[in-house]
Amino acid sequence: MVEEVLGVVAAVGAGALVYLASAARVVKQYERGLVFRLGRLRGDVRLPGFNLIVPGVERLRKVNMQIVTMPIPAQEGITRDNVTVRVDAVVYFKVVDPAAAIVNVEDYRFAVSQMAQTSLRSIIGKSELDDLLSNREKLNQGLELMIDSPAVEWGVTIDRVEIKDVSLPDTMKRSMARQAEADRERRARLINADAEYQASKKLAQAARQMADTPSALQLRLLQTVMAVAAEKNSTLVLPIPVELLRFLERGGQPPAQGPGRAQGTDHEEAPGQARTQDHLEEAGHAGAAERAEITERAVGLTEQAGEAMERLRRAVEQ
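RESULT FIELD:
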């Protein structure tokens, strides 16, 4: 008798364990559970954790509540300015109403994908090429609104939509490259012209400053010669200053003869003319002495210039 009771208890316990194993369900933290009893949805949504259902009568459907990243296949279209492009994007969405996502639409993932592709083609046809390339933020917002409007009824909310890439034909790429190159060249020419204008103003100021002090021009000439001679790959021809040549030319001219000396040979000199002749002779002697002194100075300056050129030549050779 005892053995029969123990057998019955064991059978009941085994049946209870089998029932419990078939009725137990575990809902993960990022999921929500929907219970269908004989095909009808019950009102309560099962929360994460351990849940029990009636085996054979109820069925548990789990819905993922995480944000889903879905790539949109590349769509080819013609923009408003008649340019053929291929645009691909990515959409981020999540389920906010598990019951509507399961009951109102057959497959909410496929529905969102098809709606995203249709909206992307519509955006391509309404936009210009410049907007697709530079004003993507505005297009992303418009694309998000177009997808989110019907997705609300499906219990899905669109988190964000991003256009990933815009593919252009090779001819259009070459045209855009030429346009960019021309724009860069224009900017470079403007910069060079502005630099030349500023440099001309500075050179004019420097010229006025050197006109006040001619020695500064000679020093600048020597600095230029030293800068060129530093390379040691060219032959230098150092010009003699024009001022020195003019000085030597003035020193070598004969004194001018007055009319009194020219007429003294043919006519008798008067007493006043004799005195004038004496003064002229004294002036001639003084002019000769001055010319001799000027010649000596010119020779000295020439020797100094030769020594300076020799030192400059040695410095260049070193």
